[in-house]
Records
---
Amino acid sequence: MTDLVLTVDEAAERLRVSRWTLYNLIRSNQLRTVKIGRRRLVPVNALIEYVDQLTEEAA
C-alpha cells in the first residue's frame, strides 16, 4: 500500500525543501494539509497538485 499522507518532514524531503519552506507553503495556503489529532499531515495528492500548479505557472 502506498502512503496516503506524509509527515511534514517526509513531505519536505519529497519536495527537496527545508521544513521551514514547507511550513511557509502551508501557512500561505499553497499546500493543503489535514490534521489528525495533534498531527499536521500532508496528503500525497496535495504534493502532486502543488507541483502540477508550479508546472502550469512555469509554462
Note: The longest helix spans residues 44-58.
---
Amino acid sequence: MSTTETLDRPQALPATEKQLMFARKLALQNQVILPWNVQQDRRALSQWIDAQSRMMPAASEHPTSKQVAFAERLARAKRRSVPEECFRSRELMSRWIDCNRF
C-alpha cells in the first residue's frame, strides 16, 4: 500500500462511550448481539443504532409491572389471591383482571 492510498483512506473514529452505552441498551431491549466490529467504528455504530431504533423491542410474555400491581390491588380488595400461572403470562393476567374488576 502506497503512502497516498493510506492518506486517501479515512480513519475510523472510535465510538464514544455514550454511543456504546446506548447501543448496549438497544441490544438488550431488542435481544440482539452487538457485533464487535461495529463497536470499533463510530459511523458503523451510528448506523447500527439507527437500524435498531426502528425495530420493535422483543415482547416479553410476562405481565407488566402495572398489570401485576393492579391485579394485586384487585385481589386484596376481593380478598383472594392471583393464581400463580397469571404471573407467567401477560394474557392470563389480563384475563384475570378483566374477570375480577369491580
Note: The chain has a mean pLDDT of 87.
---
Amino acid sequence: MAAKKKGGNLISSAGLVTYYDSEDRRAIHIPPKAVLISAAAIGIIIAVLNHLF
C-alpha cells in the first residue's frame, strides 16, 4: 500500500528556496563576463606575484 503525499511540494523542495521574484531594481547588477574577466585577472596577478616572490 503506497502512502499518498499531502501538503504540496514541501518534501520535494528539500529546503531549497528560490528567489526569482525578489529582484530589486536598486541592486547592483554585474554582468557574468565582468565576473569572469576580473577572476581571471586576479588569478594572473596572483600567479605573477607568486612567481616573482
Note: Helices lie at 10-13, 32-52.
